[in-house]
Amino acid sequence: MKKLTAILLIVAMMLTLGACSKKSDDADDSIKIGVMSTRTGENSLWGDVIYQTVQLLADEVNENGGLLGGRKIELLSYDNRDDAVETTNVARKAILNDGVCAFIEPTLVASHDLEAAVPKNFNLITYYGEKIGRHSFFGQGAGRYPTAFNAVEDCLDILAGKYGFYTDAMGPTAVTNTEEAHPYYVRTACSDEFLQSVTAERWESGIVTACVSVADMLRWGREQLKKDPTCFLAGIR
Q: E-assigned strands of the chain?
């Protein structure tokens, strides 16, 4: 739960990047930020902390003129009731009905991979260079609130046009997921022709696909959620 609070805060602010892509001639058109957390039940305290923290940051931005020419931040609260099925349902509502668009893809890793051995609040960051290959950095995090706060501030700085700390120049870049392809683990109660056509093997209640482009798989996933709200998929590295 502790890791999840920080992750949800980061995700909530990342959602602004998708919302900002919407074109509008109205300077009062709000930037929607979806905050998914547990607002009812025994873990509601953590969910309230998540929402109130993001609300404080949103209020500060709004009081200082908003973003992108005066647009105000509008928070959308989604209560997942600390339940996996309800999490899927509210995520679907956010994406399909409320104009919040962002995807984070779970990834399965082998038990012997470095990522599988990261404990508690430790972090592992990996990147690949064309000349130097793989580099990984491992260390203990500052904690859920400092980490979440700094991630939120980074997103707000970028949205507000404060690029100096990060780079000398920054501009919009088209994102395409068509060239990246890998196998997926998929679990759904409603198989269809597409899923059957890419199935490579079966894992108990789920299946493993052949290599499928990220764009095709996420497109299928969006449609599949309409039929099966409990549908789950994860890329396999």
A: 31-37, 73-79, 107-108, 122-129, 133-140, 181-182, 184-187, 199-203, 206-209, 212-213, 232-236
Q: What is the pLDDT of residues 8-66, one digit of tens each?
A: 334 444 443 344 334 444 444 777 788 888 888 887 887 888 888 888 888 888 898 88
What pTM value is reported for the model? Answer: 0.46
Distance CA 15, CA 111 (A): 31
Instruction: Please state, in angstroms and rounded to a whole number, the distance separating the CA atoms of residues 58 and 196.
Output: 45
For residue 187, the cross-strand partners are 232
151-188 confidence digits (pLDDT tens): 888 878 877 777 776 666 666 655 667 777 889 999 99
Half-sphere exposure of 65 (CA within 13 A, CB side): 4
- CA dist 65 → 27, 75, 151, 216 (Å): 11, 16, 21, 39
Question: Among candidates 97, 94, 24, 100, which has minimal Cα distance to 66?
Answer: 24
